[in-house]
Amino acid sequence: MTETPETITAAVLAIGDEILSGRTRDTNTGYIATFLTNLGIDLKEARTVADDEEAIVEAVNALRSRYTYVFTTGGIGPTHDDITADAMARAFGVGIDHDPRAVAMLKERFPDTELTEGRMRMARIPDGADLIANKLSKAPGFRLGNVHVMAGVPSIMQAMMDEIAPTLRTGVVMLSESIRADAKEGDIAVPLRDVQKAFPEVAIGSYPFSDEKGFNTNVVVRSRDEARLAEAAEAVRVMLAELKR
Amino acid sequence: MTETPETITAAVLAIGDEILSGRTRDTNTGYIATFLTNLGIDLKEARTVADDEEAIVEAVNALRSRYTYVFTTGGIGPTHDDITADAMARAFGVGIDHDPRAVAMLKERFPDTELTEGRMRMARIPDGADLIANKLSKAPGFRLGNVHVMAGVPSIMQAMMDEIAPTLRTGVVMLSESIRADAKEGDIAVPLRDVQKAFPEVAIGSYPFSDEKGFNTNVVVRSRDEARLAEAAEAVRVMLAELKR
């Protein structure tokens, strides 16, 4: 028996009416999913809620108690519909006020005449939070407990993830191999299930797709153990070759 | 006082490890968001969970009790990792078995020799469910209570939404107008908040973006009342024009 390595889990919470109305396509969650996979952190759940304090509070409290890390996107700008910071303070039961460190960051970008009441809203940070630097437009995100609060603009969110990454505990990276079956999913289902039974500790997924030649399937084999991954992938390839004989 | 029209709400539940690993980008949720907005149905929440029965059961039970409709995508194919139908049966506390109507649909497509044990899995339907026709590849989705269970392949999901649409109660369509501010969000935040205060029943959202000219903002005004929408949008335009003088 080898020791089971620690599993590090995460959830993403996207905040914004514009995603739920369909006006804006959420590309942030997919970006974060790939980013975390590359760090060996398992993204277990993603949620999107509206710009609604009650909904944000309830979602973040559900997720932060369940997963190692939570990453939120959206709702930390200067306008009246940016309510994420206040919602986080309420979720954690802490106060919120203009943070001198955040004000100093904004002053790097804006002369006093441009530091409007709206922009000063972006310096409202819940008590006890660490700031997350924003190299693009200065207004910071923040970390409160295990929750990382980031901007919704993709370029800014991505820069913030780069700031956060070195602070995260990381796991053993999940390795994967994708095998194009050149067969319909229904034709490989039973033999694939048997391969899965033979390799219970390897995750074998089956993903149908269609192209100009019709329905086809990608089989994805995933494991943190390189040798077991290779064995299971080979078993899938042998199974597929036998089907075609 | 005009009568408040009925609000019809919805949630989307995307099911699949491949979305959470970042391997597959979820385009279904955005498609459904736009589809529902066009029907006057308010999408209030979206979740993504893994191919994990416990996680699916918990999510669907949380969502179905809260919203008028739930739409799920993914996990109804023929392979061992397709567990959505069984999870739905468990969530509703009903049995599940091969459904003669679903078997008949599969037989339209597959000769008996190709109706493998795997493909027959796609005819497993929870007791009491109505089927959702699949014009593309026959294997049906189903409706159980207020939950609509659809395929994850986008083309099939979209065909299923077309089947479902006529069965849904629809609301008054939310109208919207998008106004490009040609200003930074921080410069319009305070006057925009004042416009929002003047039109409390109209939703005014502010969405920063950046292009080659730098940071900019789209203001989106949303209402189900055409006249109020026009008044609020005009107030935003007047405010923006005054800022530029």
Automatic annotation (TrEMBL), chains A, B:
<dbReference type="InterPro" id="IPR001453">
    <property type="entry name" value="MoaB/Mog_dom"/>
</dbReference>
<dbReference type="Pfam" id="PF24102">
    <property type="entry name" value="FLAD1_M"/>
</dbReference>
<feature type="domain" description="MoaB/Mog">
    <location>
        <begin position="11"/>
        <end position="171"/>
    </location>
</feature>
<dbReference type="InterPro" id="IPR056596">
    <property type="entry name" value="FLAD1_M"/>
</dbReference>
<dbReference type="Pfam" id="PF00994">
    <property type="entry name" value="MoCF_biosynth"/>
</dbReference>
<dbReference type="InterPro" id="IPR050101">
    <property type="entry name" value="CinA"/>
</dbReference>
<protein>
    <submittedName>
        <fullName>Molybdenum cofactor biosynthesis protein</fullName>
    </submittedName>
</protein>
<dbReference type="InterPro" id="IPR036425">
    <property type="entry name" value="MoaB/Mog-like_dom_sf"/>
</dbReference>
